[in-house]
Write a structure and sequence with these properties.
The complex is a heterodimer of chains A (about 400) and B (about 120). Chain A is mostly helical and about 400 residues long. Chain A folds into 3 domains: about 70 residues, 2-Layer Sandwich (Herpes Virus-1), CATH 3.30.40.10; about 120 residues, no CATH class; about 80 residues, no CATH class. Chain A is about 55% helix and about 5% strand. The two termini of chain A are about 35 Å apart. By secondary structure, chain B is of the alpha+beta class. Chain B has one domain: Ubiquitin Conjugating Enzyme (Roll), CATH 3.10.110.10. Helices cover about 25% and strands about 10% of the residues of chain B. The termini of chain B are far apart. The chains are: A mainly alpha (about 400), B alpha+beta (about 120). Chains A and B meet through helix 2, helix 9, helix 11, helix 12 and helix 13 of A and strand 1, strand 2 and helix 1 of B. Bound molecules: zinc ion (3 copies). One zinc ion binds next to loops of chain A.
Chain lengths: ~400, ~120
């Protein structure tokens, strides 16, 4: 669903929106911020992303300043901007594409200037209306503390101005349905596509984030405070105590100690990130997330000896055989999400003007990527580690 | 992914190198494993560099657990490797290369760690 990429804008008449969109995305997961949190060094990341980073090395991923999870603060404003932008994105991008069609047909020379002015007016309109709609539903969802946020101004004036700018001559095709019409008509006509779209996308997004407010974490308190979990000092805990802890929390207790530790840490991150969220998920959904983690990262931890505890190779073999082959099919999902991640990660350099000196030969690139995906999946036998041998 | 040094560094003139990226499930929290892959056709040698072993292992801070940051990505890794090659003036392997290549059974990340500890 979210294969959208900031570089999409580079192909439109408003390439300057690319950095705008980049700024609305988390630098760790490259996706739009989900429950953005600001660090003490004033960098912003998704709650879960920054919590995982801090769990891993206690440093801000951008500036490497040491930080602690307790010092993270919500960044509501960023969340609102991201939500509004995502809702506005489809209309924005069809407008930007529309402009592209126009200018290629006519006035290619004056294009640049016109776009810049257009940008201001055009974007005003969809963003404002959409944001208002959004704010309203947001309110009803939470409390009604932000009533005045529903600003007036349906912006007929802006609309009119924008129309004037399009007042070229000749006809243009609607970029969505292809119907040809007078240029200024297209602009209005576009709305007939966008209007039903925006709300439904909106709902989709919301529902993905679980509207059920009743079952929040383990606490049954009707509305808010989802429970937060404290961190544990694992070094002081015996295996038995650790297992007991996991079972109290209702999460799986299987696997070597190293896995138990990491699973517990991941669970804390999921739960606490969820507590940060304005749209908390049910415990069931969080458990599903943990399960996904268990099948991907968790499995590699179990199979490769690891940093926290050199549980060694005996454990590794046992675990591999059983868990790995049993759940092999469920890897499919991991593979997909992984493909998306890596695809995103290494497609960006290609698109955003790759560094002057690096040449990417695409066919090779593609094939290597799929090869990586396969051999990079959860784990490889510990013996096949030397690249020369397993690669040619 | 193939990379080439475009600067007129005589050591790498007209050569193209193949890099392999392997991503763990924990990427980008964890660094990817990046190595040079020697191929015969098309010709893809392992570049001569005092931080590149003949088996393709790269000793680069960025790729180790301590130098990696989750905001790094394929592009930034490529740029680092690129500048590592561009700035190089010694057409030679790291000390103890042969020995290392013969004996090593560790994954690149673990190796880097040890190597950095010992020399830097
Ligand atoms: Zn993120
Ligand atoms: Zn920072
Ligand atoms: Zn306030």
């Amino acid at each position: 669903m979210d294969v959208a990429d900031p570089s999409d804008w580079l192909k439109t008449t408003v390439p300057k929106l690319a950095p705008v969109e980049s700024a609305l995305r988390c630098q760790v997961c490259k996706d739009f911020f989900d429950t953005p949190m600001i660090t003490s060094c004033s960098h912003t990341f998704c709650s879960l992303c920054i919590r995982r980073c801090l769990t891993n090395d206690g440093k801000c991923p951008v500036c490497r300043t040491a930080d602690q999870e307790l010092r993270l603060r919500r960044n509501w404003t960023v969340q609102e901007i991201v939500d509004a932008f995502q809702i506005a994105r489809p209309s924005l991008s069809s407008l930007a594409m529309l402009e592209l069609n126009h200018s290629s047909v006519e006035k290619p020379t004056s294009k640049r200037k016109l776009d810049d002015t257009d940008l201001e007016e055009d974007t005003d309109d969809p963003i404002v209306t959409v944001q208002r709609r959004k704010t309203r539903s947001h309110d009803s969802r939470l409390s009604n503390s932000t009533d005045q946020a529903t600003a007036p101004s349906p912006n007929e004036a802006v609309q009119a101005v924008a129309d004037e700018n399009h007042n070229g001559n000749g006809s243009a095709a609607c970029p969505i349905c292809g119907q040809r019409m007078k240029e200024e008509a297209v602009f209005l006509h576009l709305d007939t596509h966008n209007e039903p779209d925006a709300p439904s996308q909106h709902n989709l997004r919301k529902s993905r984030r679980a509207p059920s407010v009743e079952v929040v974490g383990t606490s049954r308190t009707n509305v808010k405070p989802p429970e937060r979990l404290p961190q544990l000092n694992y070094s002081l805990m015996k295996d038995v105590a650790l297992r007991k802890k996991l079972s109290e929390l209702g999460i799986p207790t299987t696997g070597p100690r190293s896995l138990l530790v990491r699973r517990h840490a991941e669970w804390i991150n999921i739960v606490n990130a969820n507590a940060d969220s304005s749209r908390p998920k049910s415990k069931r959904e969080m458990l599903r997330e943990l399960d996904i983690w268990d099948r991907s990262t968790g499995r590699s931890i179990a199979s490769s000896g690891n940093e926290l505890n050199n549980a060694g190779s005996i454990m590794r073999k046992d675990f591999d055989g059983a868990a790995w082959s049993a759940n092999h099919s469920s890897d499919f999902q991991d593979l997909i999400s992984k493909a998306r991640n890596t695809g995103r990660a290494d497609s960006s350099p290609r698109k955003n003007g790759s560094p002057a000196n690096v040449i990417v030969e695409q066919e090779n690139h593609e094939s290597t990527t799929s090869a990586q995906l396969i051999d990079g999946l959860p784990e490889r036998p510990a013996s096949s580690t030397i690249p020369n041998s397993d690669d040619t | 992914m193939d990379i080439r040094v475009l600067d007129p560094n005589p050591i790498y003139l007209d050569q193209t190198f193949r890099l392999r990226f392997r991503f763990s499930n924990n990427y980008p929290i964890e660094s990817p494993e990046v190595t040079f892959i020697p191929l015969t056709s098309p010709p893809r040698p392992v570049p001569l560099h005092p931080h590149v072993y003949s088996n393709g292992y790269i000793c680069l801070d960025l790729l180790g657990a301590s130098g990696w940051s989750p905001v790094q990505n394929v592009e930034s890794v490529c740029m680092s490797i690129q500048s590592m090659l561009t700035g190089n003036v010694k057409a030679e392997r790291p000390p103890g290369d042969e020995d290392f290549v013969r004996r090593n059974t560790l994954r690149p990340r673990d190796v880097n760690f040890v190597y950095e500890d010992a020399t830097v």
